[in-house]
User: Which sequence fits this backbone?
């Protein structure tokens, strides 16, 4: 029996990787089609973002920077839509200004604003929210917004002059904002906002990032340079839980959990196979 | 149009996924389309959202347009060649006249000269400016936030305050001690002026363990990120498998499996 088990493990350790791809694909697909509704509990970092948004004074000016594209949409987009729902749902007259450091971020921002601000809350463009759009130049754009936003943006994404947009009145530089949220999938993104905007001016910021860059951002969060972080898809799911509106983040977490479980099993079996193989080869060599 | 878009999206998604089986013509089609369309799309997007409104718009703003001006005479001549780029009466994008923008325009043209061998040395000037500007711009930010800010964040109490000894998530003496030990031993690992043997070697080994844990966490997050991307594509495939899209995902998947299976069968036949 034991020998049979060992042979099985050795076979599994050498299985064609295409079978592993297929199994991972199915393990992700099935929970998406038939949700398991696994519980989601908000972590400390997501709670910090939520609490900070809750603590904003009425009529606060919030700068939302969109730095992701279609490829990273599943992770960041639910965060951005949830944040917009939270800000507008509070009904405290918060104004949202959206900039994009990524060119395709402009389409993501348009989609999020249409979905939440226009369709769900029926808000007015130019009075409650504005899409300033994309400008190339990464950190140079961030520095430009810090010193004089009107030099970087003379028109918004629709081609309207800033002077003709009512909610732009009194907004001239980064310090005129009360809070920054950066939805970031990499460079340019959260790091540039910390380095060139938030740290030098003291304007508080939070971030929502892809899983892959969470580790890079954690020192800023732990050091208090960023007020909480929504870390990848779990961060999105936690924020959806906090605001009480389920979305892609929550439904995706079932698939995430199932996939992680299977990957851990594969890693375990792969290592087990490796150690058994190593022991056998040592035995053959007479050690 | 939505239905056609859905079928194209499904085909391209499954074509890219088909590489997991093996390299095949579907994957090649999707790969070439992606490269070609991306290059064309970004070039056009950047020209019409940046170069035309922000560069030309600052060099020839409509606010300063004058028939008798030599500068706008050049503009009018350009307008004869390409009217959509240089509309009559100057470009109205809310900019003031900034002749200084001639400088980046010239540098940009010099960078493009890298494809013309006799003058390709000029490209170095543009690149040198970009590299120098970026280095100077980042120097202060990195020093302030990543060096001084992070050093300050590492100076934390390990005795003498009312922190709990242990906490799984919040601040505690134990967590602060781990940050202190991890930072010091991790930094010592990168001290190469002394051979890492004896007691020093033991300390740097602790640093390696901290680094390995950090890499492990990064790997875990990377896996999570990739699964998230897969979830995004699968959600679209599920959406497009509905009757409103004429079951695009199912039909394309079946067609692709049949064709790839037939191709594999043919290959096996010819090799045997």
Assistant:
């Amino acid at each position: 029996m034991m020998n049979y088990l060992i042979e099985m493990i050795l076979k599994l350790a050498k299985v064609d990787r295409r079978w592993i791809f297929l199994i991972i694909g199915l393990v992700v697909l099935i929970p998406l089609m038939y949700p398991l509704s696994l519980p989601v509990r908000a972590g400390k970092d997501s709670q910090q973002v939520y609490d900070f948004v809750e603590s904003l004074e009425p009529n606060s000016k919030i700068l939302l920077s969109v730095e992701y594209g279609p490829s990273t949409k599943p992770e960041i987009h639910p965060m951005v839509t949830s944040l917009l729902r939270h800000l507008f749902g509070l009904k405290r007259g918060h104004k949202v200004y959206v900039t994009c450091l990524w060119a395709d971020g402009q389409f993501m921002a348009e989609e999020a604003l249409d979905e939440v601000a226009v369709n769900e809350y029926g808000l007015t463009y130019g009075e409650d929210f504005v899409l300033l759009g994309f400008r190339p130049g990464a950190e140079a754009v961030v520095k430009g917004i810090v010193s004089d936003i009107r030099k970087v943006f003379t028109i918004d994404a629709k081609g309207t002059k800033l002077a003709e947009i009512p909610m732009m009145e009194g907004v001239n530089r980064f310090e005129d904002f009360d809070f920054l949220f950066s939805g970031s999938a990499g460079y340019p993104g959260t790091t540039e906002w910390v380095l060139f905007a938030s740290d030098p001016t003291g304007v508080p910021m939070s971030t929502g990032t892809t899983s892959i860059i969470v580790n890079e951002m954690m020192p800023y969060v732990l050091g208090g340079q960023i007020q909480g972080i929504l870390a990848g898809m779990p961060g999105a799911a936690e924020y959806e839980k906090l605001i009480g509106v389920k979305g892609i983040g929550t439904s995706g977490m079932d698939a995430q959990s199932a996939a992680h479980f299977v990957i851990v099993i594969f890693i375990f079996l792969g290592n087990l196979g490796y150690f058994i193989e190593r022991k056998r080869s040592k035995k053959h060599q007479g050690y | 149009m939505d239905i056609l878009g859905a079928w194209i999206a499904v085909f391209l998604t499954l074509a890219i996924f088909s590489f997991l089986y093996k390299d095949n013509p579907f994957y090649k089609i999707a790969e070439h389309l992606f490269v070609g369309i991306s290059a064309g799309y970004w070039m056009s997007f950047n020209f019409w959202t940046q170069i035309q409104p922000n560069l030309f718009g600052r060099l020839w703003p409509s606010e300063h347009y004058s028939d008798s001006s030599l500068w706008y005479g050049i503009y009018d001549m350009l307008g004869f060649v390409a009217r959509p780029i240089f509309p009559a009466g100057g470009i109205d994008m809310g900019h003031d006249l900034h002749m200084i923008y001639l400088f980046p325009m010239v540098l940009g043209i010099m960078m493009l000269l890298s494809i013309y061998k006799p003058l390709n040395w000029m490209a170095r000037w543009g690149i040198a400016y970009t590299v120098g500007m970026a280095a100077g711009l980042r120097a202060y930010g990195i020093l302030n936030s990543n060096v001084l800010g992070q050093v300050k964040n590492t100076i934390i109490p390990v005795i003498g305050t009312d922190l709990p000894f242990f906490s799984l998530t919040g601040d505690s003496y134990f967590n602060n001690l781990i940050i202190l030990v991890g930072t010091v031993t991790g930094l010592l690992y990168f001290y190469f002026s002394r051979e890492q043997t004896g007691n020093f070697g033991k300390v740097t080994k602790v640093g390696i363990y901290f680094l390995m844990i950090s890499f492990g966490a990064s790997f875990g997050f990377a896996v999570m990120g990739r699964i998230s991307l897969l979830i995004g594509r699968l959600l679209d495939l599920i959406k497009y498998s509905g009757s409103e899209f004429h079951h695009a995902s199912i039909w394309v998947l079946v067609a692709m499996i049949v064709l790839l299976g037939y191709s594999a069968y043919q290959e096996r036949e010819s090799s045997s």
Notes: Residues 99-155 of chain B form one domain.
